[in-house]
Every structure is written in C-alpha cells, then in structure tokens.
Amino acid sequence: MNSVTCRDFQDAGRYKTKLMYQMLRGSNPKVLWRKLFFGNLVKPRVVFTLWMTCQSILQIKDRLQRFGIVIDGLCVYCSLQESYNHLFFECQVIKNIWKQMMN
C-alpha cells in the first residue's frame, strides 16, 4: 500500500469520508444477501442471527461437533444429522412448524 496522507481524501480542500471508505473497502464485490439486512423492520437480534447464518458461523450442532463441544450432532426435531441445509431447508418437522406459523 502506498503512503497515504489526509490530502488523498480531500476534494476541493474538504475531507471526504466516502473516499477513505472506498479506499479501505477496495474492489470487493457486494454480497447477494446484502438487501436482506438494510431496510428490514425486524428486531436486531433476528438480523444478527440471519447475518450469522449467511456467514456460516451460527452455532449449530455440526459446527459445534467439529470443535468438540457437543458429541451428538443429531437434529433435536427428527434425529437426522443437523447441518445448515438440514436445519433451514430439509427438516420436515421444521418445515411443518414454518407452514403452521405462516397460516
């Protein structure tokens, strides 16, 4: 990284935070699930849980089992191996719960 000075973030003598943000951010692409978080009216803890899920860092049993924290990696609802896909998309018991909640 080149030597950066405050003048590099000035435009017509005024400091521009946006220029510094763009320099720090670099040219990384925006993630597809970004719009789920902004303008969302749900509680902050729900947004945080969703963010953890999108980052694959939610503490579900298969992840805890890899760290040696839990021995049993089975879903508490249907006794199949718990994973992100199973927990959010494949577990029939959870699908029925969501269906009942949506009705």
TrEMBL record:
Residues 15-98 form the Reverse transcriptase zinc-binding domain. Pfam families: zf-RVT. This is Reverse transcriptase zinc-binding domain-containing protein.
